[in-house]
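Re: that chain you flagged

S.,

Sorry for the slow reply, it's been a week of failed gels. I finally had a moment to sit down with the sequence you sent. For the record, here it is as I used it:
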Amino acid sequence: MRKCISFVITGVVAAIVISSSATAYGMSEDIKNLDNISNDILPDTEKKEIAKGEVFLDKTVELTEVLIDSDSSNEPVDVSNVKKLVDFDGNGYTLLECNPTGYYIMHDETGQFIEYTPESKSPYLDANEELYYAGPMEYYVKSGSTFINTIDKSIINDTDDLIEIKKVSAEINDELLNYKNDDAIDYLYSENTTKKQSFNLKKNAVQATAKAVGHTYYWANKKSFFENRKRGFGYVGGGYCGYIASSLMLQYWNSCGKIKLNTFYTENNAARERLTRALIARGRYLGYGNATWGGTQANVINSFAKLNKIKANAGSAIGSHLAVKEVKSNKRPCILFGNLNNPQNGKKVKHAVVAYGVGIPKDSFNGFNVFVCHYGWENYSKVYVSKALYGSVTSYAP
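Prediction finished late last night. Pasting the structure tokens below so you have them in one place:
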């Protein structure tokens, strides 16, 4: 186990305080004006058990190092900073930032690591206070009554959007509670123990965490296509992640020789941006906005494919089961979309990623499937994410 370079609690985040007990909170959604939006909708996080002080964070670092040491395929990294995150429903997460790159996000109530990568920089690297997390690509800093995404700079300052992301936060938390690492929790939250008790608790927690993060990985064919697409893949700003993911899928199949895209869409990054914008145009033609889900994005791919005389057989499914089948059994990438209540009702769906690897836990009692994903952002080409954070899938197999 390697030594941390330094240990930092980055201030007592204004949205988070050290607390020793959890108190139920009665939520009010009677919003009178946007100036008070967060006070009216978001929970009183001071009354939630979302931070445990330096001892808790020290123990979190120890368990993170178990995960870091379990991955021999990457260059070693060291934990350099520890920060507290909170979702929009008041549930706590712990972020561990690494040097030279890498970050790991742990769900405080289950002791499970739900998002991590040794290769990309932390999305909260330059932020220290009022840090909010709502799943992959949903990284926010609160400024006044506005929540600003740390990567794409999109904002949430609308009542309906805030209510919706609060519901999604609660849904993600409820799903994660199905995968509790009891031994890790016993150790993380233990107090006033003898040396022997502490030793045994730590031993059990380390063993349980090693089992939980121990996976057998399966990959799409030509996985290096996604791993190496760190930039220049046709990114377009403005919240078009579903279309960027579809663009990456089409580029992948073109590189495999399964479809033939016009060089107008492939010869350089400007051309690949044209491909993404052409897909956005197809979406608008079909009546879709920026945010899509598995079904609508399948329609976008098929519409573009028919127009360009390539095979049009994209499909979709609710849940992540199709994604496991596509990657593990069929060795094909697919698109994953964010955790939803009912994607057919037109509710806002923000994050979409390309999954090209899947990790099946060696110990199904302690672990859960993780997907290896390209986020559609520069330098986020290999991020490991819990299956609990996704709700629909787009498949395409020309």
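What I noticed first: The mean pLDDT is 82.

Talk soon,
D.
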